[in-house]
Design a protein that fits this description.
It contains 13 helices and 21 strands. Helix content is about 30%, strand content about 25%. The structure holds ligand LLP.
Length: about 425
């Protein structure tokens, strides 16, 4: 449960007034709650205690060094998707030997780097890739630990851009081909060590059913691979959803009591434990969004208000370059004024300064009738927020702040214009 709430008419993160952070650092700025991340991580680890389960945090959700460092200190492993993410883990004081490396397009340079750093396992996505890792490991005189991502054809009931477990997307190896592929690895790829099996069916899943269905479907294969190849782990992927619509209210226990249909970490654990326990395998989980999503908001300032022919607009200083989820996935983020409003709300579009019609954070949204200069908090911004940011329209990257009790720390300084162009050069 997150730690954002109104107190004395102003929204706080833990014990810090968000207005103070906006005043000191400026906007846009992402504000993370340390307590929220640590509490949810502890809850997940406790709920999974009956299993030999390990959390491999999906770094792509939020890869700030301070966040990775916090996770590493709590004994968390990492699910990475590039050499850059591996470098970040090492730079943040994390241990490469608890990293699993996923993704459909690993380059030779990245594979070599991961082998040099002794990562725990490559999660592979094609026979081609396995052959390439086999070749490189052979040249380096090492055995590369591998697992293959099996695609179980389960509909995750999520947005089409973030569903991955059906047979219509680029991820994984079809469940009908997976046994044949493991046999090929064992017979033809001497520089690989088959260490596990992996799956991931999609992101922002809000129901238990797809998880259960996929686990039921793949369990017999995991068991078979344990017998045939001695695999030691099965990674069941990430994907646990968070609250977007209802986010602010969900910081209070009463909201959860009134919404028994919501997927909680406890319900998730209770559903999967009986299915996984009998397998006697080490179970990896790769949550990204669930550990950081509700743990941050993006503070942004209302610059202008505009009454168009058909609509009201609130023009803010955060754009799709800062948080692209609404534009890319029709993502819904609640937007609240930091200074609490008590008067009548209005219906408006909340739009950014970027020259694109797709640059909106909310459309036809009932929202407080904020005036220019007022600070807003865009909720549920911790996952795939900053990590997907760009400098489009030559807008420097936003700052990031971590709140801890009544203290707060800058964990990323706002990018300067000089830094933004530092790597550009004129032709000779
Ligand atoms: N494991 C694998 C193999 C993945 O591909 C992903 C996410 C995860 C774990 C973590 O999933 P999570 O627990 O965060 O749902 N940018 C999109 C989400 C893309 C997810 C990509 N893969 C969004 O903002 O909704």
């Amino acid at each position: 449960m997150h730690s954002f709430a109104y107190r004395n008419g102003s929204m706080h993160c833990e014990d810090v007034n968000l207005a103070d952070i906006a005043g000191a650092v400026g906007t846009p700025v992402f504000v993370y709650s340390r307590k929220t991340i640590m509490d949810d991580l502890a809850e997940l680890q406790q709920a999974l205690a009956p299993l030999d389960a390990h959390v491999a945090y999906a770094v792509k959700a939020c890869s700030n060094k301070a966040i990775l460092h916090m996770m590493a200190q709590r004994g968390v492993g990492f699910d990475i998707v590039s050499g850059g993410e591996l470098w970040r883990i090492i730079n943040a004081g994390g241990d490469p030997s608890v990293c699993t490396y996923a993704g459909v397009g690993k380059t030779e340079q990245e594979i070599r780097y991961a082998l040099e750093q002794n990562i725990y396992c490559f999660n592979c996505e094609s026979e081609n890739e396995l052959r390439e890792i086999n070749r490189i490991a052979g040249e380096m005189g090492v055995k590369a630990p591998v697992a293959v991502r099996v695609n179980p054809h389960v509909d995750a009931h999520t947005h089409k851009y973030i569903t991955t477990g059906t047979n219509e997307n680029k991820f994984g190896v079809d469940i009908t081909r997976i046994e044949e592929l493991y046999a090929i690895i064992a017979a033809e790829m001497p520089h690989l060590h088959i260490r596990g099996l992996q799956m991931h069916i999609g992101s922002q899943l809000t129901e238990l059913e797809p998880f259960v269905k996929a686990i039921r479907k793949v369990s017999p294969i995991a068991l078979k691979f344990k017998e045939l190849y001695g695999i030691e782990f099965w990674s069941i992927g990430g994907g646990i959803g968070i609250v977007y619509d209802g986010c602010l209210a969900s910081g209070k226990q009463e909201w959860w009591d009134a919404h028994p249909e919501q997927l909680t970490l406890r319900k998730f654990a209770e559903a999967i434990i009986p299915l996984l326990q009998p397998l006697g395998l080490k179970i990896l989980l790769e949550p990204g969004r669930r550990l950081v999503g509700n743990a941050a908001c993006l503070l942004t300032t209302c610059l202008y208000v505009k009454k168009g022919e058909a609509k009201n607009f609130k023009i803010i200083d955060a754009g799709m370059n800062d948080i692209i989820r609404p534009a890319l996935y029709e993502g819904y983020h609640e937007i609240w004024p930091v200074k609490e409003h008590r008067e009548q709300s209005i219906v408006a579009d909340i739009v950014g300064p970027i020259c694109e019609s797709g640059d909106f954070q909310a459309q036809n949204r009932e929202i407080a009738d904020v005036k220019p200069g007022e600070v807003l908090a865009e909720m549920s911004a911790g996952a795939y927020g900053f990590s997907m940011a760009s400098t489009y329209n030559s807008r420097p990257l936003a700052a990031e702040v971590l709140v801890d009790g009544n203290k707060w720390h800058i964990i990323r300084r706002r990018q300067t214009l000089e830094q933004m162009v530092a790597d550009e050069c004129l032709p000779e």
